[in-house]
Amino acid sequence: MSRDRDSRRLPVIVTFVVGLMLTVMPLPETVEAFRPDWLALVVIFWAMQLPRTWSVGTAWFIGIILDVSYGTLLGQHALALCVVAFATVRSHLLMRVFPLSQLSATIFALLALYQFILFWVNGVAGVSAPAVTYWAPVITGTLIWPFLYMFLSGVRYRSRSGA
């Protein structure tokens, strides 16, 4: 029983680790602002699919790891990811039946909420950044979402079926 549960958790943990690697991977300065919020997208997916197992607590833990990785104000990304995970868990039953276009619009709103919280915390802390660093990840994350959704749905299906 324990091995079966661990084998189902491993793909989720691997997607979080890959999301963290894609988030902190160095990119050229011209493309850096357009990096999608990979961890936010992965947290949204797993909070929508498995809200009892991977939700607000997981988002907090991953956010703290992200804060330490970036060297930002401790708890900044954790707070933003928790709010997004909470909003996702509250509406996960609706989000599961949305068509992909409507789900992409919802993801746009969730990513905008994530970036707004980061903007707000940075404003309180006195950190300024250009507007493109807040809006570009929202747009690229929304454009990447359908492909990521299909990929992660396949990962979830394979982990459930044991293939």
Brief digest:
By secondary structure, the protein is mainly α. It has helices at 2-24, 29-32, 38-49, 56-70, 76-90, 92-97, 100-125, 132-161. It has one domain (2-22, 33-161).
Structure description:
This protein is an all-alpha fold and 163 residues long. It has one domain (2-22, 33-161). Helices cover 80% and strands 0% of the residues. The protein has eight helices and no strands. Helix 3 (38-49) packs across helix 8 and helix 7 crosses helix 8 (132-161). The longest helix is centred in the C-terminal third of the chain and has 30 residues, at 132-161. The protein is globular, with a radius of gyration of 16 Å. The mean pLDDT is 92.
Count of separate structural domains: 1
Shape verdict: globular
User: Helix tally?
Assistant: 8
Q: Could you give the distance between the termini? A: 17 Å
